[in-house]
Amino acid sequence: MSSTTTLQLEENGNAEDKYGMTHACRAIKSGNKDLVLAYIKQGLDMNYKNSVDGVTAFIRACNSANIDMVQFLIDHVRNLNVNLTDRNGNSALYYSCQYGHNEIVHLILEKTKPKVTLSTIEKALPMMKDSVMKELIDHYIGDMNNNPGELVNVIAKGPASLALLQYVSTKTSDRCNVLDESIFLSACQSHGNIEMITWLLNDCGYQSIINTCTDSDGRTGLMLAVLRHAESVVELLLAHGANPYIKDRGNMNAVDLANTSYDDGADYMRIRDPPDEVVRIINLLTKHGNHQN
C-alpha cells in the first residue's frame, strides 16, 4: 500500500463534500482500484447512500461507464446491493440502460441479481442492443410478481424491433394473451414501429378490427396515432382501411382530434397556426375520408 493510499485511508471513505461526493466514490470515479480495495478491506460500507442525492458507490461506478470498476466492485464487495436506488428512485441498472452502457448492463444481469422494472425497460428500449434487451426481458419475466401483459404493451409502444416484440410474445404466451387488443393500440402510439404494426395488421388479424378495436375512451388506433402526431403510422392505418370519421366517447373523430392535438391550453383563441406535421396529418385524414365517402 502506497503512502498516499495510507494517508487517504485515515479519512472516512464515506465523508462527503458539499455535492455529496464521498472519498470512496471519488476513488471509483478516478479508477483508483488500490484505494477502493483498501476501503473495502477496512470494512467501509460500500452500500452507503450519500445525503445529497442518495447515490451509492455502485451507481457511481456504473454512471462513470468504467466496466472494470463495476466488475471490481462485484468481485470484491461481498454484500454489494445492486438494487439500491437514489433519491429519484433509480438504480444502477436503470442509469446504465438510460446511458446506453450495453456491456455494463450485460455484466450486471450476468453476475448479480438485479430487479428489472418496466421503467428500466422503457429507458433501455432506445439505447440497448436487442441481445441485451432480451436479457432484460428474461430477467423481468423470471420474476413471477411482474405482469407480462404490461411488458408486451411497453415493447409495442416503445422504439422496439418486430423481432423483439415476437420474442416477448413467445416468452409470455403462457401467461397472457399476446393478441390482446391493447397491444395493437400501444403499437399505434409509437412513431416508427411500421414493421411491427404491419405484422399485427396482416399476420395477427388486426386489420379486420381496425375500426372496432378501441381503448376505454372509445379511441381507435388511428385516433391514438393522430394524438401522438405519428404521421407514418396514420398513413399506414389509413391504407389498411382505418376510418377517420368514427367518433370516440367524447364525440370526437380523428380529424377533430388532429385539430385540437397541438393546443397546449395557452392558445385557446386558436391564433397559432397548427404545426406542419398536424397539417399533413389532417390532409391525409380528409383525403382518405373523401375517398371513403
Describe what this molecule looks like in 3D.
The chain is mainly alpha-helical. Among the domains are: 1-92, Alpha Horseshoe (Serine Threonine Protein Phosphatase 5, Tetratricopeptide repeat); 203-293, Ankyrin repeat-containing domain (Serine Threonine Protein Phosphatase 5, Tetratricopeptide repeat). The chain is built from 17 helices and no strands. The longest helix has 17 residues, at 276-292. The radius of gyration is 25 Å and the shape is elongated. The mean pLDDT is 90. Keywords: ANK repeat, Repeat. ANK repeats lie at residues 217-249. InterPro entries: Ankyrin_rpt, Ankyrin_rpt-contain_sf.
Head-to-tail CA distance between termini: 84 Å
Count the beta strands: 0
Unreliable stretches (pLDDT < 50, length at least 5) are none
Please, what is the average pLDDT? Answer: 90
Classify the oligomer: single chain
Order of helices and strands: HHHHHHHHHHHHHHHHH
